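Journal club side-thread
Mid-discussion, someone asked how the predicted structure for our own chain would compare to the paper's figures. Pasting it here so we can look after the session.
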Amino acid sequence: MKEIEIAVIGLGYVGLPLARLFSTKFRTVGFDMNKDRVESLMSGHDATLEVEDSLLQEAIQKNGFKCTTDLEDIRDCNFYVVAVPTPVDENNRPDLKPLWGASETVGKVISKGDIVVYESTVYPGVTEEECLPMVERVSGLKFNVDFYAGYSPERINPGDKQHTVEKIKKVTSGSTPEIADIVDGVYNSVLINGTHKAPSIKVAEASKIIENSQRDVNIAFMNELAKIFNAMGIDTHDVIEAAASKWNFIKLSPGLVGGHCISVDPYYLIQKAQVYGVLPRVMSNARRLNDGMGEYVAQQVIKLMNKKGVLVKDAHILLLGITFKENCPDIRNTKVVDIYHTLKEYTANMTVCDPWADADAVKHEYGIDIVKEVINDEKYDAVVLCVAHHIFLNMDIRSMLRDETSVVYDVKGTLDRTVIDGRL
């Protein structure tokens, strides 16, 4: 194969860090349909904060990295990487429209001998059964004769500055043994910890989806334990700390399961399993349990307020954080909105504070107004720490309360227990 020239389709949380990394070794072009996003990136700033501005600017100025909305700018590439979202619809059914669109885009520019690699999380079979036939139809080329494919599932953890893309060990695969070697070599050339070459594309697809499904099930177990021990008047975190003294105990904490991976990906495997006549009870029950934790937290707050004699109706309540995880601007599928809407049934006096989240994005996605800073002279009947941003952990939260009967609830279990009235 001639010299590798890479185009990355989709410049979000996954595509941009990968494209920036590839640009250190290969001529790389990033393609995205969002003009504002592309213009921001070419100015040297990544609004997702996944790529530091200095690294992005170096990639552009030193490595010739370019972001574009113009298909002609990626026509001369020969190694296409698709990194678009794989969401679910309102009924939690896989929504493959972004993948179909990206496959159509690749089909318009791919040439004989080129390779297309998918990174989006999917159930086994999507790459070969859904995506590649669309590339064939649009391009007029024959799969595994005129062009080839691979699959290398993304492992980006938004906001994680330790497990960055260059340090992640990547699973790779190819549509033929020879292509698998080429794909593996391209990824290996930029990764510190190397790769694991899977025997097939379907195996690689399955490996990714069970990573997130396993974590979803494990967290669901902890959330179920939290419900049990809260009912019994036992502190769940104390129980976990005691159990974790055993060498083979898997230490996880209860919490809200949001974001674009753990709270979404299991639905892809659940649906596909049912096609084969298998009812995935454990995964389905885990999803239902985790999806209900926002409402459960709100009900716990209401219960504490009632016990302390705080009138819930028209109470002033402050939610700290709305992103789906700490120290990260990602608001995708955040379960904090479930806490908000449940409490909003009792009072309109709700304040949501999050210095990390984009206020316009939150308003557009959820219809919720947020503030960046807590108003100093405002006093609240209840404060709920929803997201453990570092800035929140150093706040004097009790000084924000109306009086001693007011409630502090800690969803994340990170505050000093002398400060709080309850925690998940």
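Post-session note: The first strand starts at residue 5 and ends at 9.
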